[in-house]
């Protein structure tokens, strides 16, 4: 993979097709009307399942090839890490690619503020308010600074959407996310650090696919990136980009990060909030792909958002932690 401002995760999405529930029932109200309880409901349908991580995280094996060659995540997951909320099937999958240390089988530690699972390579904590900490320690993973062709550690959360928004049939896609970088410590000397090879970054990706079997572009896919922190860049910029990702054989369109977060720096270790309608930016990405000669036979109605992933990709020797809270993706018809 080429490392740029949003190198895509080596994620695998096992996708199920369930139609979006739009309409006027109190459970599924796309207009933001009052429910039978008399309370104002947010507009649209929540696309994310379990946004406060109450049902825990299913834990992948350490290499994506194990998943690919042995029948998918459900057959190869090593454990489910739970946060004291029963034994319901988890919505979230945690991918711990290219690590020496399996979080599966780890004994949880319950603290005053939350539940933690930790080993020498990573730590995951869910706090009582639903905030999730993802902490990755690659100084225990790398024996020397990474060179060009080596895999790098990931610590990602991902899910397939049950309610899959159709890009052409919705009027808004309201995205909310709060993110704080807790620490990011470079464990290489300045002489060892190579900006073209080494960084720690925390992109958010949507996976989009043409689902129209009558289209010549049927099954053509695209990663749509919502960039955030990248160690190499003190401030966010306003540049979009399109690139081919070798690892997943799929194009990436990255939304200009300043459009999402504003003119901020995640290096300040403070909370930052994104709250905007992503739909125009996603459609802008489709137009950018057409300019590249892709999706030429794809109408917006052919495209659905299938799932997402988010978290750490660390192709350099960094120890880094982030917190995420108040995640929401709401589709409005």
Brief summary:
It is built from four helices and 19 strands. Helix content is 8%, strand content 34%.
Largest sheet: 9 strands, mixed
Average pLDDT confidence is 88
Number of strands: 19
Helix content: under 10%
User: What share of the residues does DSSP label as strand, in percent?
Assistant: 25-35%
Say what the CATH topology of one domain is. Jelly Rolls
Order of helices and strands: EEEEHHEEEEEEEEEEEEHEHEE
Shape: globular
CATH architecture group name of one domain: Sandwich
Could you give the distance between the termini? 37 Å
Structure classification: mainly beta
Secondary structure tally, helices: 4
Protein model, in words:
The protein is mainly beta and 333 residues long. The protein has a domain at 109-153 and 162-332: Jelly Rolls. Helices cover 8% and strands 34% of the residues. It contains four helices and 19 strands. It has helices at residues 64-69, 73-76, 257-261, 279-291, and strands at residues 24-25, 28-29, 45-46, 57-59, 79-81, 92-95, 109-110, 114-119, 122-127, 132-137, 154-160, 172-186, 204-210, 221-226, 241-245, 250-254, 272-277, 303-313, 318-332. A nine-stranded mixed sheet has the order 5-4-6-11-18-13-14-16-15, covered by helices on one side. Strands 3, 7, 8, 9, 10, 12, 17 and 19 form an eight-stranded antiparallel sheet that branches. Strand 1 and strand 2 (28-29) form a beta hairpin. The protein is globular, with a radius of gyration of 19 Å. 43% of the residues are buried. Mean pLDDT is 88; it is low at 1-37.
């Amino acid at each position: 993979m080429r490392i740029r401002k949003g190198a895509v995760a080596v994620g695998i999405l096992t996708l199920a097709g369930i139609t979006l529930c739009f309409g006027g029932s109190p459970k599924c109200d796309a207009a933001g009307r009052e429910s039978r309880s008399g309370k104002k409901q947010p507009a649209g349908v929540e696309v994310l399942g379990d946004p406060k991580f109450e049902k825990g995280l299913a834990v992948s094996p350490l290499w994506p090839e194990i998943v690919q060659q042995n029948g998918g995540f459900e057959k190869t997951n090593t454990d489910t890490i739970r946060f004291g909320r029963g034994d319901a099937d988890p919505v979230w999958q945690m991918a711990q690619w290219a690590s020496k240390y399996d979080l599966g089988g780890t004994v949880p530690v319950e603290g005053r503020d939350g539940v933690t699972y930790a080993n020498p390579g990573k730590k995951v904590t869910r706090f009582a308010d639903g905030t999730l900490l993802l902490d990755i320690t690659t100084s225990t993973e790398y024996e020397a600074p990474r060179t060009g062709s080596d895999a790098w550690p990931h610590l990602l959360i991902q899910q397939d959407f049950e309610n899959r928004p159709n890009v052409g049939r919705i009027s808004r896609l309201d995205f909310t996310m709060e993110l704080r970088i807790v620490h990011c410590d470079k464990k290489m000397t300045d002489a060892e650090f190579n900006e073209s090879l080494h960084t720690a970054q925390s992109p958010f990706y949507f996976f989009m696919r043409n689902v129209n079997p009558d289209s010549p572009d049927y099954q053509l896919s695209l990663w749509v990136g919502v960039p955030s922190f990248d160690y190499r860049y003190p401030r966010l910029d306003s540049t979009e980009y399109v690139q081919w990702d070798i690892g997943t054989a799929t194009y990436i369109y990255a939304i200009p990060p300043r459009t999402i977060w504003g003119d901020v720096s995640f290096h300040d270790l403070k909370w930052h909030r994104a709250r905007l309608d992503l739909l125009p930016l996603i459609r802008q990405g489709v137009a950018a792909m057409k300019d590249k000669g892709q999706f030429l036979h794809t109408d917006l109605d052919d495209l659905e958002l299938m799932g997402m992933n988010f978290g750490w990709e660390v192709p350099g020797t960094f120890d880094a932690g982030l917190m995420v809270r108040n995640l929401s993706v709401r589709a409005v018809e």
